[in-house]
Structure formats: structure tokens, C-alpha cells
Amino acid sequence: MRILPSSNRRHLAIALFATxxxxxxxxxxxxxxxxAIIVTAQKREQNLQDVAASVTALGTxxxxxxxxxxxxxxVKFLPSVTVQxxxxxxxxxxxxxxxxxxxxxHSASLPTVGTYLDxxxxxxxxxxxxxxxxxxxxxxxxxxxxxxxxGASSMAGTIKMxxxxxxxxxxxxxxxxxxxxxxxxxxxxxxxxxxxxxxTENVAARIVGWYRKDAGYIDNIPGSRVYPxxxxxxxxxxxxxxxxxxxxxxxxxxxTYGARLALGIELDDNWTLRPTVMGQVQTTxxxxxxxxxxxxxxxxQTVQYNPEHSKDKWLQAALTIEGKIGNWDLVAxxxxxxxxxxxxxxxxxxxxxxxxxxxxxxxxxxxxxxxNGDQVSxxxxxxxxxxxxxxxxxxxxxxxxxxxxxxxxGIFGQSQTHYITQHYIIDxxxxxxxxxxxxxxxxxxxxxxxxxxxxxxxxxxxxxTDKLTLTGGGRVYYYKNSxxxxxxxxxxxxxxxxxxxxxxxxxxxGAPCNNLDKSTSDTNFxxxxxxxxxxxxxxxxxxxxxxxxxxxxxxRRGILPPYGPDTLDNYEIxxxxxFGPVTFxxxxxxxxxxxxxxxxxxxxxxxxxxxxxxARIRGIEGDFTYRQGGLTLTLSGSYNDAVIRKDFCYxxxxxxxxxxxxxxxxxxxxxxxxxxxxxxxxNAIARYEFPLGEWDGHIQIAASHIGKRRNDLRDVExxxxxxxxxxxxxxxxxxxxxxxxRVELFATNLFNAHGVVNSGTQCLEGVCGDxxxxxxxxxVFYDYVIKPRLVGIKVGADF
Length: 799
Prior knowledge:
The protein is mainly β.
């Protein structure tokens, strides 16, 4: 279980939009001599200015210029995208304010945003793969529902990471090195390189490798706490817990290494095979949250009482076959993703605050005995293992792109299996209260989750005139999602709650039995309608009505019913324009989110999901770019007014009446802003390139602003966690390039802004937040913060 996570702003947003004429895209550098940006957003190569959708593209050079290394770096410069993170490899991405406060629990809802590596979806339940961004041709961000072409996990948008393909022309490569230091932290660096090798006239290989060391900046400072029940029975000395073995500066360092091997095999003039194997290992120490409690005195500090680390390993093998049948294009693609992660996490807050609560209420505390009947410390920690296996396949055909009637369509199938194992451990507990088959487990989760999708999809475009094009599309889908295995305490032993009782023999490795075995499925249809009008060769307007969906799933609390799918209807008007050195693209939209899968921590700290909401998002997003000589100026941003339309009730009722049934009440009233994402997000980039003797020089300044956000949809919990404050970061770089050699000095977050991405607690907010005032030190909250100022030097050579 991971730690979960005005008027002045409106004036700023209006001013920025008015002065920069914003709306949709940061420019890519994957472009030809005419500054055409080529993307594959609609599953065929197109000039970005011809795509009737809101698409942001960052090309190879732009990714390097912006110091992009991972997913959070990418999101920083995507105007409609925000991220919620609890550390590397555990990040959730959101488009256009479509967020309800998901906690990314293993048995919770699927993400609202799909992530693709080339042709293959790589979205996993607990977060997108944290791929090191090197030798990427571009990153494409597709805002709004992409369900017709991309399916279930693209309800709110899609992010595509497109790798550079092997080149049959010549042998060449590159090596890049970086050394950096982080304020309040240590020293890190990067070594990365690639080699492109033609093997024969029709076969080429591209080999890519990287190593990255991220320095830590969170300090685990000395601290202690006294368990009240232990103190009452054995005295203060026996009841005092310290974190002395784990005190460390720069607690949260990370190491990442990986490689990619891609082949290009031209069978003849019409058919090409592209097999690819890519893998990465990422090891982290500590955690990425600073603590908000009386025990800490400043930023970038925490007090943790148990070991914390993670290891995330993944391997993707994929094959794409491209060819022609007559004058139609055919693409067949498939792949397999293996992902395994291991985590260790402090969970002592849960033990300490529940001991304080029970001792105050009942005078006995959180009593856990050993085999002799003596009380042991209730201190807890969590050791987890997750094993993902995803199989994917798609076959699609497309008619000639220059025909007046064009079709693209195909069939799609995937299956993701997730084996979940989490050991909640209290050392030295009695045999009769530990979960059978484990050592010192007070609680065990050992489950198997399977998410399956099948679909047939298609889009048909018709040029009514040489200026007007109409497009209609649809996707017929079927999903079946299941969850089986064990979760809970030993019973009888430590809990008398009947929902933890065994119901059947175990079908999951590591589970003593099954107390959960459920599935849910559905078949339905989603649509897309679009009209595009070319005013001139350089001015296009479009209107779109599209729908995205997210499959339903199983609540692991067996007494709760499965939750159903939610949908997002998007009504969008946009434009793409280019006037000489100026590019101005934009979109205005309304999105209606129905049957929202609201997830939150319920009884005993278990995640619950309910279809309990209706929301409306009204927004504008955009981009203004000016290129002249060596100067490039880019302004981009988005404004989203995302609110729920009906009261969110403690108990779901069909008519949203929070007075029915008895005991129901309002958790969040209609008009409450959706959490996590800001109303306004904006970016500004200025880059000037100039000759410097025989070298080319450059200087670049980039700024990013994230507005104020809610932490939680529910009013009481949000009041405890506090709103997330707005923050602005500035990056600067300057360097020289001789064509073959390059050197660059850079600083990210130059003014050392303190930005919080999301906040959370280790248990129910009211308990770990100590709303009853039962402890001398008060509650403990965790704020996941952006990286402090990073200063570095990069050198590189091409050969």
C-alpha cells in the first residue's frame, strides 16, 4: 500500500491567454525544412497542423533542450497534463482536470490516461512506466478522449513515447555524459549512448543504453515516539521507538539503468519487420515525501522508523509488421510486457496512531501479543511484490491517405495479469494471530487481478469538398476484469470480521485460502464525430464530439459490489494556424464525466471505489510559437474549470439525495472542484541560437507555473490535508555545439521553488491526522515535493 496521496489566478490566466493567444501544443523538433511536425496521433503519419485534434509533440532535440529525463519532466511541459506521484515508477497522469483523487492502489480503478511505447500500451494499474527519456523520436500528448483508436485506458487522453527507428543508411552513434548536484542533496549523473548499424542493405540495428544516478535530497532525521499502551504496561523506556538505525542525509537516492535493441528488416519494397526489446531496472532508497509534523523543522525532512526502498524491473518485447495489400497499408503489432517490483515501506504511523486511539477510547491500546502472551511493539512495516504480465495485439488497415474517402480500422486485444503480494509485518507476534504460511504477518494481501479487453474499431473520413472533411468513428468493446485471492488477518486469531473468513481453497500463490473471487464484464460502444474545415492552406478549424470510457472492476472489500465503467463525453472546437514565423493552435472544450469511479480509503484503511459522481470540465488550452532567425518563443497553457455537478454522498443513492438512506451525509457538495489538477497551468520558453566562432551557441530560459489545487475531493479530508499551493519553476541553460561535440551548463528549478505534487497519510486522514488531539506531537502528513534546484554540466559527442 503506497502512501497516498481565485480570482487572482483567473486574472493571471486571462492575461496570459490574451497576451499570448494560447491554445494546444509545445513544438516538436522532429520536423522537416518547412517546420512540419510529423506525428502519428491518428495512427498514420500526418503533419501536426493537419491533425484535427489537440496534440502536443516534443521531439528529440526539444526533449534534450528541456532537460527531460523521465515522465515527470515530460509532464512539466505539457500544458494540459498534471501528475500525482509517490516516487519513481509510481506516478499517475491526468489530462484536462479529469481526476477524482485516485490513490493508485493495486485493486483500484484503472488509470484515465493511456501510455504507449511505440505501438504497445504499457499502462499499469499502479502507475506508468518511468522510462528514461533518451533516443526518443518524440513524445506525443493527445488531449481528450482517445477511445475510438486507443481504447479503454485512454478515457481522458493518451501519451505516446515514440522511439527512433533503425536507419539503413550508415553507421553512426552518440555518447552523452552529465554531472549534476541538487540543492540540499548529493551528486548525480547520467551516461547514455546509442549506436546505429546497418547490418546488410535491408537490415539495420539500433542499440541504446543508459545509466542514471539521481541524488537524494530528503533527510531522514532523528526522532522517537512512545506507544501509550506499551508505556502503561512496561514503562517509558520499553515503549520508546527511535529511528536511529535509519537516520541518513539525502535519504531518497535512485539508480536507473536500461537498454533497447531495435531491428529494422526490409523484406521487400512493401514489407518491413520491426522487432524491439527494451528493459530497465530502477532502484530507489528512502521515500520522496517530506513530513509535515511537529518532529520536523524544515523542508526536505522526514522521520521514518523502518527500512524503505524499491526495485522496479521491466522488459518489453514487441514486433511490428508493416506492409501493403494493394494500395492499402497494413500494420500488425503485438508484444509482451513483464514488470516486477519489490517495495519496503514504513507503516509505523498506522500502528502508533491506532494505538493512541484505542488506548484513549478503550484503555487497552493496539495490543499485539507474542507466543508467551506478552505485548510486543505494534510497529508495522510493509514488504510488497508486484508482478505484471501484459499481452497485447492489434491488426489494422488503412486506405490511401490521399483518397477522398479514407478508412482506418482494425481489431485489438490485450490481457494484463497482476499478482499482488503485500506483507504487513509486526515482528515477533504470536503464531496464532499471524496469517498462516507467513512469518509475523498481521495482515496479508495475496491476490491475482486480470484485466481483459477486446475491441473492433474504425474511422471513416470523407472529403465533402476540397475544404470540408467529415469523420465518423466507433469502437465496439468487451471487457472482463476479475480479482481473486486473500486479504486480511488470521481468522480466528486477530479479527472477528466475517469478510476476512476463508471461503474456498487458495488459487493464488502465497495465499492461505480465497476470501475473494469476483469478476465483472460489459460490452458497449463508443463513438467519435468530427468536422474539419480548411479555411486556407495554413488555417484549419474543427469540431469534435467524442467519448472515452474506463472499465469497471472489483472492490476487494467483499461486502461491496463491483463498480461499473465511467465515461467522458468531449465537445471540442479547435483550430490550427500558421502565419509565417507564427504558429497558433487552440481548443475550447466541455467534457461531461459520468458515473465517476471515486476511490478513497474506507474502513480499516481499505480502498473503496463507487460510481458516485457527475462532473463537468470546461476549459481552454493552447500554444503560441514564434520562430525567426535564431529566436524561438513559445507560450503554452491551459485553464480548466472542473467541478462535480451533484453532491457526493457517504452512501451512494440514485437520486444523489444525501439524506437517504438513513445515516447518509454530504462528503462534497455540488460545485466542488475536482482534486489534483490546477485550474491554470502555463509554460513559457525562450531560446536564442547564435554563431560563436566556428561553434553554434545557445541560451534558453523556460518557466512553468502550476496553480493551486485541492488535495482531496471530500471537504473534511481536504481540510486536513490542506490545499496544494501554486508554484513556479524556472530553468536556464547555455551551451555550444560544434556539430560533432557539444557542451552545456544548465540549472533546473533555478530559484529553488518548493512545490508539492500531492499529499497523503499512512492511514485514515482523521486518525493519522490526529483530529482528536490524542498525541503530544499531533498528526503526520506527507507532501511529495518537486526536486530542488539541480545544477549540472553535459558533454556529448557524435561519431
